[in-house]
Amino acid sequence: MAIKGRPAVAAFGGAGAVALLAAGCGIGGTGVLSAGESDTTVTITPASGTQRVAPDAVIKVTASGGKLAKVSVQGNKGSAVTGELAGNRKSWHSTRTMTPGATYTVSAQAKSGGKLRTVTSAFTVLTPAQTLSISDVTPNLPGEKVGVGMPIILHFDRPVADKAAVEKALHVSADKPVEGAWRWIGSDQVVYRTKTYWQPHQTVRFRADLAGVNAGGGVYGAADVAETITIGAAQVTTGDIGGHHMTVTRDGRKLRTVPFSAGNGETREFTTTSGVHLLMDKGNPVTMTSPGRQPGDPGYYQQVVDYAVRFSDSGEYVHSAPWSVGSQGSANVSHGCLNVSPSDAQWFYGIAQRGDVLNLTGTDREVEWNNGWSFWQLPFAKWKEGSALG
């Protein structure tokens, strides 16, 4: 916290009025009123010259004997500090936190005797020993269009102690708004999911007013972050694992029905998961290795596949499988992936967007809500329980 001292005070009046700018050492204190009933006294805290002001300190400006005409705050780095003027124009206070290490100048204008006078206060915000930054925002690929199920996933560079304070700084807006909520996935990751799918063909904007936020334990937000997300076409794929076919639609129109061969079901590991999945990423080629097994172990395999589109963290992909074309559409023989023909795989790979919906039914192995991006497996009321804001 900043050391307490006198605020910046200026007195406006007749020819004898003086402007007092305290070169003091802290925020808070009592303003010094000048003589004369017509004088206007403006008090700014933090005082001019204050060092090591807490990033979450509130800037306050008050006027005695007159009214404030305008208040502005300029900083040498970081985001602008916004504020709110009281209805009687007697006071103003900042409405957001300040960037650590920045120097700010507050300029307040007030009318006195029909003249507009200005008082200023310049101070420096402390640089904390530890800061909190957003290390990754997903999605964030340049020019990318994502599917209507796409979540917004934030990773922080350290555990967050005060999740509620950080969550309050996170904002999502859309051209076609829909209700949504954040859910914390551990101490350093938070995910935004909507109640219903995004409307297609629109822009979504994410903003984190993180600079200066007290994240707990002496850690303050380092900088603001903003991303613009483009929602593409509504591409939804539905598949019956027992029926060995999936149907792909775009904006409600059927594009193609694709025969596949899913997991053979001999073990839980080799059973394709049912439930609402999202397409997560894709690669061509991708090397697939049996999890938890070494060469020579029973069930070990290593296979290079083309046109692979991932839809879980447990190794499930839609991919090209020329070796099983004879079973596609009639039998499930894979290790859990959806094996499709080379031509269908190339086509699906070409249209796939991260965040597209893949809804599979037909097995008793339900995909876990936290397996990959299968967040739609949680009812929205349950999803919201993971918010730090209740």
SSE topology sketch:
Elements: E1 8-12, E2 19-20, E3 40-45, E4 60-64, E5 68-75, E6 83-85, E7 91-94, E8 103-112, E9 115-124, E10 130-132, E11 134-138, E12 145-146, E13 152-156, H1 163-168, E14 170-174, E15 180-184, E16 189-194, E17 202-208, E18 214-216, E19 219-221, E20 225-231, E21 235-240, E22 245-250, E23 253-259, E24 275-278, E25 281-283, E26 286-289, E27 302-305, E28 308-310, E29 317-320, E30 338-340, H2 342-351, E31 357-361, H3 380-384
Parallel strand pairs: 10-19, 12-20, 21-31, 29-30
Antiparallel strand pairs: 1-2, 1-3, 3-4, 4-7, 5-8, 6-7, 8-9, 11-13, 13-16, 14-17, 15-16, 17-20, 18-19, 21-22, 22-23, 24-31, 25-28, 26-27, 28-29
Describe the structure.
There is one protein chain. This protein is elongated. The protein folds into three domains: 117 residues, Immunoglobulin-like, CATH 2.60.40.3780; 103 residues, Immunoglobulin-like; 141 residues, Beta Barrel (L,D-transpeptidase catalytic domain-like). Strands 2-1-3-4-7-6 form a six-stranded antiparallel sheet, with no helix packed on it. Strands 23-22-21-31-24 form a five-stranded mixed sheet, with no helix packed on it. Strands 11-13-16-15 form a four-stranded antiparallel sheet. With 390 residues, the protein is mainly beta. It has three helices and 31 strands.
